[in-house]
Every structure is written in C-alpha cells, then in structure tokens.
Amino acid sequence: MADAVAAGVKIGLIASVPATMRDSEYYLRLAGEEAGKEVEPQLCLAEDLIDVMRAEGQAGLERRLVEEVMTLAKDADAVILSQFSFAAAFAHLKTVSPVPVLSAPHSSARALKRLLG
C-alpha cells in the first residue's frame, strides 16, 4: 500500500472478493494516513475473475484484468492487484497499463527485503 500511496492519491484497487476489497481499502487508507496523504480509492470488485481464471486459464485472467486496469487507469495514479491469485498477470499488466500496476506479493516481498536489510 505504501508503494501505491507513493505513486499518487487516486489508487485503483481490484479484488474479486468483497472482504478482500474492504481490507485492501482499509490498509490503503491507513498507508495514506501514515504518509500524510488523503487517498482516493477507486474500487473495482470483479467477482467473476476467479471463475474466468478457472475456465480460461492465464490468458482469460490477463484479458479480464486488462479490462479492469484500463478502466481504473482513466482516473487513477496507480492500480493495485489486491489478491495474490492475480500476481501471475502482473508482468503482462505492467506492459499494457498507462499507470503503475502494483501486486500485493511483489510489493510485500520488496518491503520484507527492505526490512531485512
């Protein structure tokens, strides 16, 4: 979340589960407070994403996430893939998105690496 807040205040969040969306929004706002910024979450609850991934595999997941990222990117400084299951599409999304795309596992790994020195 800190990486997203560093990119701007309008942050897109993509999740397929309502509980994940609520948690992600909470932690995004918390990161904003810690950085002294008032963030403006742009929420995308795409409940079909897991079903698409199961039915169409990686290509289907990437296709659907591109649709959502491009929609969010119209009014966001960055977009967060809030579920670890979306991380497989991260590399592709970075190449097509006009705004930074962040992935929970990738950002978590970088934060852990910084903490460990």
Structure characteristics:
117 residues, alpha/beta, four-stranded parallel β-sheet, 59% helix, 16% strand
Helix content: 55-70%
What is the structural class?
Answer: alpha/beta
Whole-number total of structural domains: 1
Radius of gyration: 14 Å
How many helical elements?
5
CATH architecture call: 3-Layer(aba) Sandwich
> How large a portion of the residues is in β-strands, by DSSP E?
15-25%
The description of the largest β-sheet is: 4 strands, parallel
What is the distance, rounded to the nearest whole angstrom, between the alpha carbons of the first and last residues?
A: 20 Å
User: Which fold does the CATH topology refer to?
Assistant: Rossmann fold
